[in-house]
């Protein structure tokens, strides 16, 4: 496990699915709730291509993007100020724009919902989306398998413990999983309302995966370890160890997985606040995110593991009636967008 100066997060090489990798991942997920993974299958070229696509999309006229507004399914274009991730702490919505693609089928990489025709009218653009979506799903499943091994999920007659999550994340069943492009325009203004680019929040799902680019830093976590806001740096690709491959990918645990494990895996608060250097250059930030969720009907009963069982009265161990993954997500989305339930 590598550590670099100024990086509060572990970098875990996930090339092999084995006990020692699982333990490293588990340690990071139960402490900071955030980490980096290397040894993934995204090449530098693929990552550059998807960032280029996202940039070109956001450069399209506002009148075009707003023809696909985000709705109650969390799918579509979220305009500047349209999303307030921290409704208690901030009055205005975040100064960012986003495109969410939901209701994904991971065999095809396609959404069952309409996406902007700028993507669908060009097979090359569509292929960038579908390839990235499928690879994100595969990476999230690998991470969930490693977490299952780390949690020592018990085997049952039907299923091996390490496959416990996979059976609840079937590729063709409906889930809350979301693929997202984000754009935070550069602005030199130091108005405190404008400096926070994405309000403090925790993610809703199970595992979040995030690409970011050099010189566009801004992600910060409220570390459960040091109880302070700490910056998540950009970590460059280790091209000696992984020739041609992209940089380590940011991974974090969301509320649903924390709930499912009685709070053992940490869903850490984070926000986007540009560092002085980025603020001064007026540089934009783009990020590409994948939120992995179990199938809608998955029942959030505590995961069958001795360590989880030993934690009484928290998360899924507290509630006597199990809720579904869909019920869990709907309650969180209602708060973020001000939707009535
Ligand atoms: O852009 C980022 O780095 C953070 C995005 C994020 O936290 C989110 O969309 O939930
Ligand atoms: Fe987030």
Keywords:
single chain, about 350 residues, alpha+beta, Jelly Rolls, 8-stranded mixed sheet, 4-stranded antiparallel sheet, 10 helices, globular, binds 2-oxoglutaric acid, binds fe (ii) ion, IPNS-like_FE2OG_OXY
How is the secondary structure organized here?
Blueprint: E1 11-13, H1 19-31, E2 34-38, H2 44-58, H3 62-65, E3 76-78, E4 97-101, H4 117-120, H5 123-150, E5 178-184, H6 192-195, E6 196-201, E7 207-211, E8 219-222, E9 229-231, E10 249-253, H7 255-260, E11 270-273, H8 276-281, E12 285-292, H9 306-309, H10 325-337
Helix pairs in contact: 1-5, 2-5
Q: Can you give a write-up of this model?
A:
Pfam families: 2OG-FeII_Oxy, DIOX_N. InterPro entries: DIOX_N, IPNS-like_FE2OG_OXY, IPNS-like_sf, Iron_ascorbate_oxido_reductase, Oxoglu/Fe-dep_dioxygenase_dom. The protein has 341 residues and is an alpha+beta fold. The protein has a single domain, classed as B-lactam Antibiotic, Isopenicillin N Synthase, Chain (Jelly Rolls), CATH 2.60.120.330. The protein has helices at residues 19-31, 44-58, 62-65, 117-120, 123-150, 192-195, 255-260, 276-281, 306-309, 325-337; strands spanning 11-13, 34-38, 76-78, 97-101, 178-184, 196-201, 207-211, 219-222, 229-231, 249-253, 270-273, 285-292. The strands form two sheets. The protein has an eight-stranded mixed sheet with strand order 1-2-10-7-12-5-4-3. β8 and β9 form a beta hairpin. The longest helix is centred in the middle third of the chain and has 28 residues, at 123-150. It is globular, with a radius of gyration of 19 Å. The model has no long low-confidence stretch (mean pLDDT 92).
